[in-house]
Model the fold of this input.
Amino acid sequence: MKVVFDTCVLYPTFLREVLLRIATHKLFLPVWSNTILDEWRYVVSKLGSVQKDQVGSEIALIKLQWAESLYLIENSKIDDLWLPDSNDVHVLATAIFSKSDVILTLNNKDFPKSILSKYSIGRLTPDELLKQLWKEYPDVILNEIIDVYNTLKSKTNLNFPLKGVLKKANLPGIGKLILK
Done:
């Protein structure tokens, strides 16, 4: 399954790391375009120069580690596409031209299912995707979430319990499954 990452799932770091770690198990192939990565860089650049430098390194690393995930989109090919937020048309174009199955986003209103269905593209939130994968691969999901959480705790002064981190990362449903 090919899954286009909307910019909002590339940042914050915890969410991105969980998704990419799970993708290493070949449960789905993450997909993005340079425009999506540039949008990620722009959003993070507003936070200051340190974050801007860090995101540049993260983007370079992702391009290296996930070379098969980058799709080049010609701007002239997106002129006939429409979404409620014209700034998201490039995400739809990436999904169409990469022949992706799903757009992964936290902004459901910006990607109406009625429009996506015309292109045989679904829409999921990261929480919905992880809950679906949980049904077949609970150990993979649990282990990767715990590992990313522990890595984050060891590298930062993170004082939130896992439940709080999952909630903040918009993953409350998978949190309920994990923390029963």
Q: What stands out?
A: The mean pLDDT is 93.
